[in-house]
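Review form for a predicted model. The reviewer records the input and the model, then writes brief findings.
Reviewer: anonymous (R2)
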Amino acid sequence: MPRKERHVVPNSEKGGWDSKRENAERASKHFDTKKEAMDWSREKAKQEKSELIPHGKDGKIQNPNSYGKDPNPPKDKKRQ
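Model under review:
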């Protein structure tokens, strides 16, 4: 099953930031600041059990976070 994603992306037309579901043409919600967009999107990602993927102003992905069942969890390098 593919993972669900929610992206926080800059809005080049209106300025500010948008929260969008994967492959969505329209934003779920628009915000003036990235902090507002991240706070709202984090709560939505928790509800949806999805991956939160923030983007920088240059469009590059910055520190994604999984709030659901991650199909590729990081492998623990520590031995006990």
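Findings: Helices lie at 34-48.
Further findings: Residues 5-62 form one domain.
Recommendation: see findings above.
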